[in-house]
Amino acid sequence: MGIEQRSNAEKRLVPGASRAGAATMRAAVQHRYGPPSALESSEVAIPLPGRGDVLVQVGAASVHPGDYFVMTGKPYVVRLVFGLRRPRHGIPGRDLAGVVAAVGTDVTALRPGDEVFGWSTAGTLAEYACVPADNLVSVPADLSVMDAAAVPTSAMTALQALREIANVRPGQRVLVTGASGGVGSFAVQIAKAFGAEVTGVCSTRNVDLVRSLGADHVVDYTRTDFTRTEKRYDVILDNVEAQPLAAVRRVLTPTGTLIPNSGRGGRWIGPIGRIVTARVLSGFTRQHLKPFTSLGKRQDLLTLADLLTTGQVTPVIDRTYPLDEASGALRYVAAGHTRGKVVITV
Ligand SMILES: NC(=O)c1ccc[n+]([C@@H]2O[C@H](COP(=O)([O-])OP(=O)(O)OC[C@H]3O[C@@H](n4cnc5c(N)ncnc54)[C@H](OP(=O)(O)O)[C@@H]3O)[C@@H](O)[C@H]2O)c1
């Protein structure tokens, strides 16, 4: 495929504004912030890779709650990053897996035909996506493109929370809420891989799933309030925040680490209020209260590729949607009852 190169400024894709004579692709496009119904399936120009970029022919892309926040522009604070009046990138989606279609002149580690997975901030719910080469790694042998697409953001969040933020060590007691969700299903497996004794909190219908991921103990939140049990945990990754911080801290050891990890909250500042509360409280207790923002890191994706290769981590796919039904996928994710990941096949 002959792909000319463009500067970074040029390569930003303007929905609906395909260049005269340029090759086009199908994409899920949003012209304004709004609900999933605002997504349109459109023909747009195939983006052109800059010098350090890779053009990926997308095989599959996954979506997560953050994609929904960016699409709706709520909480409003996300607009400071993604565009004040309308989304800066007309195509939603961040995670992807697929085949390298073309590379920029500075890219030497990848070549057309390579199978890769990773993340892009310029939109992945499309037939092609432009991705900085540093955001991609090779898909492990024996892993499907669909499974690979499910990994990047959710698994990197779980890995960073458990390794960088909590420094989980063998034998520690780790509790994961939302253990059946995108982040939680990876967190249970990663904590086990680190040698922890893992407790997963989920609803009745997901008890078997969470046990199958390796959890040593499962708490069904419809029957038992984990904050009212006698057990104490060295690390709590709270992906749901169904309980107040004070209640969760009751079951944290005196020097344990609590990571409040819900992106939900009020419509203006979302989780920022809770983040500030946790940070302020941190100054008055030996317990470590550590909200954090996950970042795309190639080294972490390589670590995850190893865990996938050894079979210590296996993605859980809940539902798949074709690209033309991407709005349904985002609607489903927004409802908050995902079991593992939701993947869009392209
Ligand atoms: N810090 C960061 O940078 C970062 C990065 C990524 C994600 N996040 C945040 O992490 C959170 C989790 O993301 P996700 O992708 O895992 O969400 P998700 O895929 O929607 O999963 C949520 C899971 O929680 C379960 N659940 C609901 N209520 C529960 C409760 N009271 N106790 C235990 N489990 C419950 C749901 O299943 P049932 O309803 O069937 O129980 C579902 O399986 C989100 O708020 C997201 O915004 C933060």
Automatic annotation (TrEMBL):
Start and end residues of each Enoyl reductase (ER) domain: 34-344
Domain of life: Bacteria
Annotated GO MF terms: oxidoreductase activity; zinc ion binding
Protein name, entry field: NADPH:quinone reductase-like Zn-dependent oxidoreductase
Organism of origin: Agromyces ramosus
